[in-house]
Amino acid sequence: MNLSFKRNVIANYVSQLYSTLIAIAMVPLYVRYMGAEAYGLVGFFAMLQMWFQLLDMGITATITRETARFHGGAGDALSLRRLLCALEMIFFGIALVGAMALMASAGVIASSWLKVQQLPLTEVRNAIMLMATIVALRWICGLYRGAITGFERFVWLSGFNSAVATTRFVLVIPFFIYVGASPTEFFSFQLVVAIAETAALMLKTYRLLPRIADGQRLLWQWASLRGVLGFSLSIAFTNSIWVIVTQTDKLLLSKLLPLTDYAYFTLAVLVASGVLVISSPISGALLPRLTKLSAEGDDAGLIRLYRNATQVVGVIAIPPALMLAFFAEQVLWAWTGDADIARKAAPVLSLYALGNGVLALGAFPYYLQFAKGDLKLHLIGNALFVVLLIPAMVWATWRYGIVGAGYAWLCANVVFFLLYVPTVHARFVKGLHLQWLLRDVSVVVLLSVMGCVMLHGLMKWPQEREAVAIGIVVAGLMLLSIAAAGSSWVRTAIGGRYRARFFS
């Protein structure tokens, strides 16, 4: 991994870890000021944002890939600017239609879909209408983030994302204290932040775009989309599957559960999502770099980076997944200080954390296909995944509630990893899968599992909340060290630094 890639990964990590941790840390305060039922609306809002991605049609990933290709020497400035202009027209049009549709449905959602018990229905309806506008604006932000990502300006983007997260999650607390903490007031504050965020990202994107010659025009042209339409539609299908797979349970439970219980489910899923957040900075920096290497014809460098990144993700994602699975109740108690929440949400947290750990590693074949620009196997595999998973998810959620959804999520990801991943590797790089599985995945995972089992047997948890939190941190660091020992890339990197420092 070269210096610029490492810098991009570090910038992504600092930003996403900070954003995730600050969001998780603020949740108990949200519940305190807003109440559990009102926080259920926040969980519903997060789910709406994900379902809105069904309208993306692969646009965000397409602009990322085409910007990265231009950055790697493929394409010209005029074509890139025309493509962005065409995609902007589509994005803004879809955002407007989507927001209006949500606003029109606000009354029905408040009165017929959500199981509201104490909040006034007028308050809930107004909050949903505000959600509609915020969701549309944040979706538009994705287009400009995609372009900035393609230019690999991760340091700037990470700093900006951290500033936005601080405003959204931290500065809203003084707003609660001095203005109000009703759902309408909360989402009004978030709307102002979303408007400023969209404007700043748009301005940065246009500053990064290459100049075009005098006399060249940027009129909307269908021809700008023809060359990327196939790839865009493939990504659109992929994104649709991802949303359906990860959000069907949340949609069903928003209908089946009282809004207060839905808030508890949201808490568990939020904590479990930290596993994916930990790994996503790697993928965010990996996709444009793999695409660039593929465009340059450096297949050896592409595979080397692919395997090294797998080990890094295994080291940083598997230990947290196991910690959340084995010590779910302790983590929730240390976080919220509410024994009832910890007891109710712990089984869901365990299952979702394990499923997300498998998914963090099982996502790597997608990165390979993305870089090669060939997503046929991805389409077929994910279509079969949906056909099998969705009925199981619906049945398990209906029959067993949130725990059933957790088991369906975990089992589906295990089956996907065992059957689909080797198929993709065999298609693109002969002989890769066995080396990848044995050298880059298995050693890290097996050592981590053994270490977690040992810790589970040895740990004696105190009664004090602060002491439990310290114990979780210490156990997590021990497990991280054990996982790092299983990675040949980490050992080589540490050994190289040691030799350079003491034997130079």
What does this protein structure show overall?
Helix 13 packs parallel to helix 18 (432-458). The protein has 20 helices and no strands. The longest helix has 53 residues, at 376-428. It has helices at residues 3-34, 36-52, 59-71, 77-104, 106-113, 121-150, 154-170, 172-178, 183-208, 223-256, 259-272, 274-296, 299-326, 328-336, 339-362, 364-372, 376-428, 432-458, 465-485, 488-502. 45% of the residues are buried.
What's the layout of helices and strands?
Layout: H1 3-34, H2 36-52, H3 59-71, H4 77-104, H5 106-113, H6 121-150, H7 154-170, H8 172-178, H9 183-208, H10 223-256, H11 259-272, H12 274-296, H13 299-326, H14 328-336, H15 339-362, H16 364-372, H17 376-428, H18 432-458, H19 465-485, H20 488-502
Order of helices and strands: HHHHHHHHHHHHHHHHHHHH
Helix content, binned percent: over 70%
What is the count of β-strands?
0
Main β-sheet description: none
Please report which band the strand proportion falls in: under 5%, 5-15%, 15-25%, 25-35%, 35-45% or over 45%: under 5%
Supply database-style keywords:
504 residues; 0% strand; mainly alpha; 86% helix
Provide a concise account of the structure shown.
The chain is mainly alpha-helical and about 500 residues long. The protein has helices spanning about 5-35, 35-50, 60-70, 75-105, 105-115, 120-150, 155-170, 170-180, 185-210, 225-255, 260-270, 275-295, 300-325, 330-335, 340-360, 365-370, 375-430, 430-460, 465-485, 490-500.
